[in-house]
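A favour between colleagues. Tell me how you read the following sequence-structure pair.

===
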Amino acid sequence: MLVACILTAPPTLKAQDGADARAITMSEAVALFGRSGRQLTVARLTAAARTQDARQGAAYPNPVVAVTHESLRGGGASASETYLNLTQTLRWPQERAARSRAARAIADESTADVYADSIVLVAMVKRQFVYAVAAERRAQVWEEAARVFREVERRAQQRVDEGELSGYELRRIRIERQHIDDQRAVANLDVRDRRRALTLTVTGDAAPMLRPAGWSAPLPGPTLPTPPVDMHPRLAAADAAVAAAEAQTSAVRWSRIPALAVTGGYKRQSDSMRGVFLGVQLPVPLFSRSGAATAAAAARVGAAREARALTSAGIDAEIAAARERVVVMQERMASAVDTTERRELFSIAEASYDEGALGLTALLDAANVYRAAALRSIDRWSDAWDAWFELERALGVSLPLPRGEGDES
């Protein structure tokens, strides 16, 4: 039966170049990204670099050892002097404490940034997975449509040979079949592009290729998740940035106080005179008083506080917009025509065609309507999950995946 060609379809598309692609579920993709995703690795290493730079900046200065030898001649006589110097710059206890607080604050900020970035990146992995599943479903629709129209064309050719169908209708069928072949090629190309995007997002490499293992989990709802009890990760990162800027400002202010440099050493002369010496150096803030550095640090604190306020307002706006989008997408899914009903409509059209009550062109139009409805259903499904994962990102949480997420769809 013609309807069986359209309605019976394997769950996933086997793309021409995807035979060696590794099938992966969404939970596996998220876990693999957490272990070896390059984007997350970059975020972690960047945070580690900032933390270590801050620790290095808070380190106590090293002592300086110098050895000097002077040789003197004149009037037929000669003499020499040898010095062994040890110089140590001393930091005031308040400055040392301020630098240590700044280093810890920068480390906390880096950790908060990594966690906030991880929430965004995990949501991106989930969305790329959904995009890949949707692309394979669309390609399957066009694959089945192409198979149906090849069968229709074959049957039409037989009817033309028997004198039951005009050449015009046969040419129209061939043109439609060519259009479907074109769309199938575009859909298959989109499948490969989505697999590459999924692979690059999850692993950061172009190969080996990953493909979604299918997904049949029902859309969550209708109850929407509420904002987390804990502080939003991006807001926590903004607070950490303010704290780091304030700690750095304190360190800059204490660094304006001149630091003592103590020098001690041992001196030996050629006339057998020898002894120790001690000196103190104190910079005189005559030309540079670090006023601009203090003002710059204070400005960075102000900028961090404004950024924090902007982040808070942006989070509220994003959550509101994401919740509204999820509600709309859920309503679209609820109002969609049931798959069984769409199949029944096409079955009626096929039966009418077999009885002669419906022309071949009308049957093809019915097939087009069924195909368009199937593609719209895929779009609704993809948009609904995309909206859900956008809500997760806006809330700053990564919710548990629904049961059945690894089943083929």
In short: The radius of gyration is 36 Å. DSSP finds nine helices and six strands in the chain. The first helix runs from residue 2 to 7. Confidence is low (pLDDT under 50) at residues 1-17, 405-409.
